[in-house]
């Protein structure tokens, strides 16, 4: 029995009881109408209909009639056909969006959902559990970013890639989304470089405790802040706080976003006929992410932005893996099974035994740095990168006389109280000089240091000829 029919039976029983009390003058029309919850006019009309027709006069005459707002059978059949043939597996919300946008149907979401449930195409949602209070959003965009990856069958007929997403906590706006073979350090740097280069530096980054984000000595334990990963080193260098999440519930906002993407994105990619990762990434960047943000992004609690401009900072040289190496005797650097030949440099004849840093960029390219100077750039296989800019020598300095250079060094040493640092090639020259001026190697040459006023010894003809 439907609810309206059951309610009608209760209403008839209550009316008979009130009518008996009214006929016995226990109550008047005003009291009877109040007890039934209707107006005096409605009570009088019910009395007339009961006297003329009996119980049949009290029946609700709307029962059994088709509602004037009922969906026509043709529309019901069309909606059912579309869902079965084209949108199989879509949620009610996702299907209703396509129905109103692409097929110009005017029916409400609730009516469409009820129809799909009546036809057995959708299951009713289970009852929700105990209410859990969500963490409030950050008031300003850029105060906290979320980054995470999800492995899922995003593209039909292919091995499941990882989707890396970077989003804002204040607005749930997706700043970066792309598919990659596997989540790791390179994918993290790629996403951060896209966001930081476009929006600036945020105040904090909220991630899980993946091995590329944190070192965790004990499984499920606290992260080791004193032993940062490449990502931790780069964030510390940029002054960005790195926050670790200790449960999936802590990253609820990110988890809910991925649940939406796992439901919608594979279907949208299939509708668009996209089957390769490069095409999917271009479509994500140009088409899906803008429409997703327009549909799901929320307005920040406060106006403005907490992003800080990264002007004058080469983000590509910070957001990359950096490892120290020592140049070998062959003037090459060994890195990941590859030999990187250090090219000629105006700084010094060679860099044998010099400590350098190898930068590995997210796209696999490499570079060698000595201090802040780039010595060379290389392709993924270790060959010199012909397309990269050749390291430029330092600007030439004006020549100085021996007297002026010595005076400048002496004055600088006197003012700073320090000894001038030797040049990069000083050790080789010292060893050669000691061989010429050591005691027992003959008379002092004009380059040896002698007390002021000491005359230099005369050289014989034979000595001058030897010289």
Q: Could you explain the architecture of this structure?
A:
- The protein has 467 residues and is α+β, with helices and mostly antiparallel strands.
- Among the domains are: 3-58; 76-118; 145-296, Nucleotidyltransferase, domain 5 (2-Layer Sandwich), CATH 3.30.420.10; 320-378, no CATH class.
- It is 38% helix and 13% strand.
- It is built from 14 helices and 11 strands.
- The strands form 3 sheets. It has a 5-stranded mixed sheet with strand order 3-2-1-4-5. A 4-stranded antiparallel sheet has the order 6-9-10-11, with no helix packed on it.
- β9 (355-360) and β10 form a beta hairpin.
- α1 runs antiparallel to α2 (29-36) and α2 (29-36) crosses α3.
- The model is unreliable at 392-450 and 460-467 (pLDDT under 50).
Short description:
The chain has 467 residues and is of the alpha+beta class. The chain is 38% helix and 13% strand. Strands 3-2-1-4-5 form a five-stranded mixed β-sheet. It has a four-stranded antiparallel β-sheet with strand order 6-9-10-11, with no helix packed on it.
